[in-house]
Amino acid sequence: MDPAEALRRIAFLLEWRGASPYRVRAFHTAAEAVRDLPPGPVDAQDARRLHGVGPVTAEVIEQASTGGTPAYLARLEAEIGSAATAGLALLEASEGDCHVHSDWSDGGSPIEEMAQAARALGHRWAVLTDHSPRLTIAHGLSPDRLRQQLDVVADVNTRLGPGFRLLTGIECDILDDGSLDQEDELLARLDVVVASVHSKLRSDAGPMTARMVAAVRNPLMHVLGHCTGRIVTGRGRPQSRFDAQAVFAACAENGTAVEINCRPERRDPPDDLLLQAAEAGCLFAVDTDAHAPEQLHWQSSGYARAARAGLGPDRLVTTWPADRLLEWAAHPGRRSTIRSR
């Protein structure tokens, strides 16, 4: 076990135990910091000089770099026992990520770099989901820019070769009336459409519920992104108010997946709503909402939460092979049948 692997396993186990997002993120940050270190022993004091590495993570790095199991990791594994095995199995079953951004909207890296990072992580596919036009602060894609991006994705796939496919998609704004912020003709051409609420997040529960249910029932939509819009770090942002029973029932009825957003500042939906969606029979997408290559590793936290909620791989579209995912997305009327195979 190398230092990065040890740090990410600790992050997974901390998420499983419900630790604060700050602690979980600290171990992911340290894992990214050691990514390019050469093999061999690393002194803790030297590790402390790396960006984002503190005394605890430096000790983990030192102990893992010599081939041992870090004491911190061993202690967590002893405390949790075999309870996290299901979560690790889900993580290992992951095939892809339905929510990835590039520098075409508010991401920081080119499309091909994000695709290469996803492939290096072991994914078989990833969905490029830059923002839609209304989100101007994120440089959302106009119809013309989205058409151009489709050509770019096709070109990237020719260079990536076999074994990985970058799928076309968008993170589409859910407008006030529940319609989607892009031309229907274009949405129909995309492989996967994630739709999220980004405006008027403090609306009354009634209008917000109607808005979300209308979107979920749209056959051009596949994944409901970060459903509460909450932020749990920094100054934070409270979760939106809506009738969760009605929204999740609509998701289950229409085969629309509920996103388990893995960004440490989101952890959306909260645990109580995640359990409610699971009980409603929803499908789920464990997504990083990554805006940079190193954020693709955050998916492990979402699988820990999925396992705690009792979800198996058949309920998680991100564990499905690309062909099965695309069949589900292309035939919304048959999604429940595809799910139960």
* Estimated structural class: alpha/beta
Relative helix content? 40-55%
Number of helices: 15
Domains, number = 2
Strand order of the largest sheet: 1-2-3-4-5-6-7
Average per-residue pLDDT, rounded, comes to: 93
- Provide the CATH architecture of the largest domain: Alpha-Beta Barrel
CATH superfamily of the largest domain: Metal-dependent hydrolases
Strand content: 5-15%
CA-CA gap between termini: 36 Å
Count the strands?
7
Low-confidence stretches: 336-341
For this structure, the CATH topology of the largest domain is TIM Barrel
CATH class assignment of the largest domain: Alpha Beta
Question: Overview of this structure, please?
Answer:
With 341 residues, the chain is α/β, with parallel strands linked by helices. It has 2 domains: 3-84, DNA polymerase, domain 1, CATH 1.10.150.110; 94-339, Metal-dependent hydrolases (TIM Barrel, Alpha-Beta Barrel), CATH 3.20.20. Helices cover 45% and strands 10% of the residues. Helix 10 (205-216) links the parallel strand 4 (192-196) and strand 5 (223-224). Helix 1 (3-17) packs antiparallel against helix 2 and helix 1 (3-17) packs parallel to helix 13 (299-308). It is globular.
